[in-house]
Amino acid sequence: MLENSSFSVKPELFSEASQLIDVLQIQQITTYSKEKNKCVFTVNKGKITVEFPRPDIVRLTVNHTNENFTHHNSSIETYESSEFTIRETEEHVLMQTTDVEFYLHKQNCNFTIKSAKGEIYSNGFYLTEEGTISLIGAQENEFIYGLGEKSGWLNKKGERLSMWNTDVFAPHTPDISELYESIPTYLSFTPNYSFGCFLNNTGRTIFDFKNRKDEHKLETETGIIDLFIYTGPSMKDVLEQHTFITGRPYLPPKWALGYHQSRHSYQNEEELKYIADSFEKLEIPVDAIFLDILYMDGYRVFTFDKERFPNYETYLPQLLEKGIHIVPIVDPGVKVAGQYDVFIDGVVKDAFTKMPDKSLYIGDVWPGKSALPDFSQQKVKDWWGELHEFYTKLGIKGIWNDMNEPAIFNESKTMDLDAVHDNNGNPISHKEYHNLYGYEMSKATSIGIKKLTNERPFVLTRAGYAGIQKYAAVWTGDNRSFWEHLAMTIPMCLNLGLSGVTFSGPDVGGFMNDTEAELLTRWIQMGTFLPYFRNHCSIGMDRQEPWVFEEEYTDINRDYIQMRYEWMPYLYQQFIEAEKSGLPVMRPLVLEYPSDHRTFDLNDEYLVGENLLVAPIVTRSARSRAVYLPEGIWYDYWTNQVFEGGKDSLIEAPLNKIPLFLKAGSIIPLTNKKKKANQKDDELYLHLYSQESGHVNTVIYEDDGITMNYQSGERFELHVNVDFNHETVNVKLESRGDFKPNWNKITVFLHGTNKEIRIESHLEFEALSGKELM
Ligand code: MIG
């Protein structure tokens, strides 16, 4: 009790002890050997290994124990290590690839990395206490990004952040650092160079940028230090390097990029029907409706409550025919019950997590006493994946994984730390494994549905670990209907993107507390331009479907949700680029303008791809805002007004308007606004935002939107080349690939000039010049 009063700041509770630590040097190399493309050093206690997954990436492990660690490769892509040369100097062992020089000090094991360009990333990494590694000599003027799902601002310099997947129902305030997802990776940015570090450890880890200004201190609680050092030199390079190691984001099915509606819970068939019908009647497109925990029979996963949903076997496929996907929630807890086949089957298959004495670990969650699948085992992942046939045979193609931190209703909020994960025969404790649990569950689910449906799966997960982008979208958990949480969405999702996780979004409208009309509308406006767009709300709170307030709001909400579909070709293009490059769909301005200091800690604007700048309204009653536009010429999406960048401009933002800007020289593909999600894209519109002169180009993609066939060439690529000449704008359109899109017409619109437009089309369908838009 007293902790929540002024008693908390009683002076006697504080000591003024200095926070500075001396750098301990606790290692000394005794021998070393090179095995294949890996160097193993024996030190006074344990082993250090160095390898280069690629010439520009260093992997260093420091193992003080004599154990073998196998789990720490679970989220890592397989790679073949690069070759390197090794040379000894008096003080150092020097390992060298084509890109980097790695100097390991023989006496104290400090190490320094230089890139081929001679840049020194710091004056060295030091092994301090056991399980801790410190980089000393960090630039004081650096900015720290990434670190996964964290509250607070974009720049994390000066913070101490902890990684332990946690179910946080309390309001997500800036001082809470342990949330649902742990992505233990960060990026150090200065305008000169960037580098990144990924501390691959699935137990609790701490990233301390606060202890000393020139230090990055990385602490592990269990396991070993397994550090990937990404040598950049640009921020984009670091992201490419990180997603080379942990995997590129997967390409979701197109329907996963549409508008999604959820509530805890649509309680029965009538309510579900009312919701689906309302969307239809109001002409608001919706691609997915979610079923929260009440659809199940007594919270048993892989069941339906037949009283609430008597016709689920016929009704759900009917909804799918109308283009509405049902996404049911699946939690990890399996009810302990003799009459329940999933539980019995799990026991027979030895699929549940056990305690050291081999008894089942039992935790309290929604169904009451529950067993928790041990996803560390391949056979359990396979089993869990196959169980989803229960859903796929109803036409379900998407699954919502909640509570997979795992969250348990007890003091520690999670599983017993002593519980044992079999880890394919190399057992480890839950304490060491924890942050991987949700990742493995979603991986099992994603692979399971992919096998069962032969389509690109959609999994929405609450918990995750580095690499989750290969399998699932992430929503940011139980936020609140607070304006502050609307504002926080921006840096939170941006940092997820800078950690490799591009497909993310919050509960639009806010989960807890009652939303209000204006907040919901502003959130929907932002959601229209977020990678993942789902409105979700808690039981007991006022309803927040897009039509629940006055008509004025409903009209605006409808307009924006329809706009999401209008912008789909652009959005889809960004997801395809993300799969290729690892760069996020939603980008902080600093990623594109790394020499403009105004962008370094910009928290209330973002880019979608390179060319669309979104400046949401995050303040109640605001009807205008300052928008910082970086260098260059920008067009106001709504008015075509031209703005000179490099400064702030005051932009009007009446309730129906979110400020949007397009960079001069951009080619923006849009399609028709939709009233229903499954309406066909029969037209493509190319909006060209003119620049003085020069050449620009882009590639726009189309495929069936659901299968993997695009990987074997069933894809349509529209190559657009534009030359801005003195008197004309020449547009050349060419196609490649085997897929035939639905478009029967392309219209090209030119913004910001009255030069003549000349279209040279090599397409099978019509290409027209639209009216000039000034
Ligand atoms: O402990 O399934 O974050 O989205 O509606 C609460 C009920 C469990 C937490 C999720 C929320 C979901 C809710 N779940």
Brief characterization of the structure:
This protein is α+β, with helices and mostly antiparallel strands. Helix content is 18%, strand content 29%.
Model description:
There is one protein chain. This protein has 774 residues and is of the alpha+beta class. The protein is built from 13 helices and 49 strands. The strands form eleven sheets. A nine-stranded parallel sheet has the order 31-30-28-25-21-20-19-33-32. Strands 1-2-3-4-18-15-14-11 form an eight-stranded antiparallel sheet. A six-stranded antiparallel sheet has the order 34-35-36-41-38-39. The radius of gyration is 27 Å and the shape is globular. It binds ligand MIG. The site of ligand MIG has 11 residues, from loops.
Structural key phrases:
globular, 774 residues, 18% helix, eight-stranded antiparallel beta sheet, 13 helices, nine-stranded parallel beta sheet, alpha+beta, 29% strand, binds ligand MIG
Question: Which helices and strands occur, and which strands form pairs?
Answer:
Blueprint: E1 29-35, E2 38-43, E3 47-54, E4 57-63, E5 85-88, E6 92-96, E7 100-105, E8 111-115, E9 124-127, E10 132-136, E11 143-146, E12 160-163, E13 181-182, E14 185-189, E15 194-199, E16 205-208, E17 215-220, E18 225-230, H1 235-246, E19 260-261, H2 269-282, E20 288-291, H3 312-321, E21 325-330, E22 334-335, H4 341-348, E23 362-365, E24 368-371, H5 378-387, H6 389-392, E25 398-401, E26 420-421, E27 428-429, H7 430-433, H8 437-453, E28 458-461, E29 464-465, E30 473-475, H9 483-497, E31 504-505, E32 507-508, H10 517-527, E33 534-535, H11 551-566, H12 568-581, E34 586-587, H13 589-592, E35 606-608, E36 612-614, E37 624-629, E38 633-636, E39 642-644, E40 647-652, E41 660-663, E42 667-671, E43 683-689, E44 694-702, E45 716-724, E46 728-736, E47 745-751, E48 756-761, E49 766-769
Parallel strand pairs: 13-29, 19-20, 19-33, 20-21, 21-25, 25-28, 28-30, 30-31, 32-33, 43-47, 46-48, 47-49
Antiparallel strand pairs: 1-2, 2-3, 3-4, 4-18, 5-6, 6-7, 7-8, 9-10, 10-17, 11-14, 12-16, 14-15, 15-18, 16-17, 22-24, 23-24, 26-27, 34-35, 35-36, 36-41, 37-40, 38-39, 38-41, 42-43, 44-45, 45-46
Helix pairs in contact: 5-8, 10-11
